[in-house]
Amino acid sequence: MRIPLSLFACLLLSVSSARPNSWASGPPLDKIPSPDDLFAFASDPPYGSSKILPREEFLRFLKDGVIEPDPAAIENASDDSWCTGYFFTRDGTPYHWVLCSRHLLGISIGDRSCLIRLKDSEAKSVPSPMNANEAPPLTKAPQESDLFTFTSNLRPATGSAFPLSEKNLRHFLRDGKSVEPQSLYEIRNIEEAKGIQIAPETLNRAPKWFIDHLNLKPAGGPYSFQDYDLYCEGVLVTRDRHVFFWALLSDTALELTSPSGETGILLLPKSSPIEPL
Length: 277
Hints:
26% strand, 277 residues, six-stranded antiparallel β-sheet, 7 helices, globular, alpha+beta, 19% helix
C-alpha cells in the first residue's frame, strides 16, 4: 500500500490563505453538509500507528458543529486526535476531511473548504484496529456494476498528480483480474517500475517546469511512478456504500485498499492496457 497522500494534509492546512473559513485557494464553503445527506464515510487506510475517526464521531460535526470563522484556529488545534479521510453525499459529491483536534474538523471539495467547530462537545478518534504491516489481502474487489462514483482529487504535497478517467477505471473494474495474495508485493514492484503512458494533449497542457523536471520523452512515456514522482490516486464508493482507495501502478495495474487496510491489485492483460492519461 502506498503512503496515503492525505497524510500531507496538515502541510496544506499550514499554508492556508488569509481568507476566513478556508485553507484552499477557492472561495470558502459557507454551508455544512446535512447529516441526512451523508452517503458513505471512511478514514484513510492505516499507516504506521495511525488513527481513525468513527462514523458516529464524525457525524457530531455535521449535526452540532458551526463554521469556524478564524483560519488561525488551525494553529492552536493540534492534539493527538489527527486523522483524515473522505465522505460522499447522496448526490455523489466527494469531500476530503481532516480531524485537526477533538473540537475542529476541516472539510474540502476541490479548491473550496471550511473549518467546523464543536463548541459544547468533542469528537474522539481511536487507534486503527489494524496495523498497516499486518493487513490481510482484499478478498473481494468491486465490480463495474458496483460503482456509484469516484474521485481523483487526492493532492500530493510534492510531485505531479494526474486524474484517471471513468472509462479507464471501469476498464479495471470490468476486465481486471485479482492478483493472488502471495504475489501482491512482487507484482506491485514490477508494475510500478513499468510506468504509464501520458497522452500528447496532456503534455501540451503541462507547464515548462514540469516538462523540464521530468525530462519527459517526446513519445509520452512510459514514465514510472517511482522514478518521476507521479501520482494517479483517488477514492471510489460502491452502491452499497463501501469505500475503496485506489492507486494506479501502471497501464495495466490498479491497487485497491479498503479503509481497514486490506489490499489487492487488479491486473489487465498486457494486450489491453488503459488509454494514456
